[in-house]
Design brief:
Order of helices and strands: H
Helix content: 55-70%
Structural class: mainly alpha
Number of helices: 1
Shape: flat
Length: 64
Amino acid sequence: MECLRPLKCNVVVNHHVELSEEEKKAAREAAIKKLQEEELAKLKKRQQAKRENNTEVQTQLTLF
């Protein structure tokens, strides 16, 4: 019975995938949509942080 040990090797794949115009267009639209969603999430996060900061200031002012 042979002893199994990890092999030290590299694998190189030399082929290029050509996308059709429709596939390129779909990939571009998906990337744009993803970017828009990420930016919207950032804006919402900033607005929420601002609201939290404003409520802290208001509660402090009402204590006096």
